[in-house]
Input
Amino acid sequence: MTPLQKSILNAVKRRPMTLRELQNNLQVDNSRLRTTVSAMVATGELSMRNGTYVPGFATYENAAAPNTIPCTLVKLAARFGFASRDDGEGDIFIPGRALHGAMPNDKINVKLFDHPRVEGSSEGEVVEVTAPNNRFAGTVCLSEDGRMAVEPDGCRDVKFLLAKQGSEGVHLGDKVGFLITHRGNRHSDHRAAVVEKFGSSDYASECAKAILYGRNVRQEFPPEVLEEARAYDNATIDPAEAAKRLDLRGIPIFTIDSAETKDIDDAISLQKLDDGYELGVHIADVSHYVRPGSALNEEAFERATSIYYADKVIPMLPTQLSNGICSLNEGEDRLAFSCLMRLDENGEIRSYKFVKSVICSRVKGVYKEINALLEPEEGVDLTDLKTKYEAVLDQLPTMDELYRKRLVLRKARGGMEIESNEAKLVMDENGRCIDIVKRDRGTSECMIEEFMLLANQCAANAGRTNKAPFVYRVHEAPDAEKMEKLSATLLACGLNAKFKNPIPTQLELAALLDETRGQPIQIPVHTGILRSMQKARYAPQPLGHYGLVLADYAHFTSPIRRYPDLAIHRILTEMLNGASASQLQRDFNEFAQQASEKSSKQEVAAVRIERDVEDLYKAEYMHNHLGEVYTGTVAGITPRGVFVELDNTVEGFVPAAQLCKGEPQVIDGVSMLDPLTGKSWMLGSSMKIQVAAADVALGRIDFEYMVE
Output
């Protein structure tokens, strides 16, 4: 730093100064001063604030702040990044020059700036990479000087030159897995080598493979896991084990799933009583086969969840278990963990018990077929369906009756039904997306969801009342700050929603959801309420579920595809075997904590993968519809432009420059106004667009505004 630069910095540290004040204070040539000040702004040593100069983001001398803060870099773009603090205290903005070559998922130490460019924000500089992440997926491209390079996924406009050795045979536009082989102090100094070649980035299936590689998804099972799984090839249940259990094979139990489901972990039975109902929810007894200390268990713990995308699944357990001995297949005897519930004539739980059982599903029910039987269309011949479901047909009206009563109870307590558009991707024989349809939920889907919810509620109640270590599914109340933002959104939508307290009750929010359902403002209201919520997670403490309005809730019903369910099966089994509270604490305290933390983390990663891969397939589909015109709904508004959602759930971006002749004015993220023309667009309003571009590699779709 030159003497003049030091003098300028010392001056503005005393108080903010204009350029004229600096000149008078330092008595230096005006031209030289302007040149020096401009250079210091460019390097971050100075910042402009309200027409005056103040110390810049690259000047940190905050003695009160800790020396460095351990973080993980979570986002990287060409000119900035974000680091997530390891202590959970939020994110830190990192300007481009302060990144010093750090990459996503690097463990880093960050020094906070004493004078962030945005007052009150957290900004800082990477001072050390403590644990580098060098494994990435990306797209082969050209550098600015025409050399072969690679752009990491999720790091737009960041490019690394490819080393010649190991990158033979790659072509522009290929999706690849690569390693950073040399790191410099800037991203432009990094060098990379290709280690996996997936294929053209024009195809979503190849881009999906790259995403899985880049995020270290365990796709293949280790040899020791496969060896244990092979013991269950074409397995049948052990007669000696079945003899120890409650035999429910004489009861008409059956399953209801999607037609394509192969890992069936839940079945139901229902009997009408004089004073109510006896509902049985029978879950695959995975814990009988996946034992503590086994390779199967260790791998299931690490994966924590199955990942479903497009027409594929990355299972938590090998197929010998997930599709075989643990799947409640039609006509096959299976070991189960049953929750047998007595409900009164209004559908309220009176009592429940958990038992180890042996069952045999009478029929593999399919949602679409059950819906046809429950709500028959005029003129449709249901003879074949009635024959298929003959063994359980008389249960269906009773199930529908109980579900309707449960729905009344859910509404009475304020259970929220937030509308979300789920897509079903239709694939051809080559794995290409040829259609996208909105996934509809009929009566049978909602009915099964409600019955599973009941069993989950009973499981959590058993854990809590027996003071056992447990893995609960928790959803905490929203915080007041998010509620303030929600109130602003609702007001901008024309809703005078006044809550009695800073945190609204579930009944208040449920009323808003119902009031706007099917209306043009459904999207902003439902989306706003959803975004104001906390994220559901797993925890060893029974914190309740705000959204479902339940004091007791856990995940018991899907042990084939979720580790928390398997974990509480193990704990409940020991409770049934008579283990004391102290013994349960001793055996499962640490296990419940670890399973909760791991499962929460892996769930977030799996959901992100599923969403990102879905975006790839949507872009692939829309690439075949370039130039076509649609009418969509404004689903998101930012200063850069608006997001428009089509009826098939595809979302694309319309730049603000196409909409506004003047500087766009965005009001509470709900509406955009062009002050020059007076035109405005609001969340939920319709917009005519043309498909302008669809980038499969980025999962991005761009629309062009069509003036109506």
Summary: The CA atoms of residues 267 and 607 lie 25 Å apart. The longest helix spans residues 581-623.
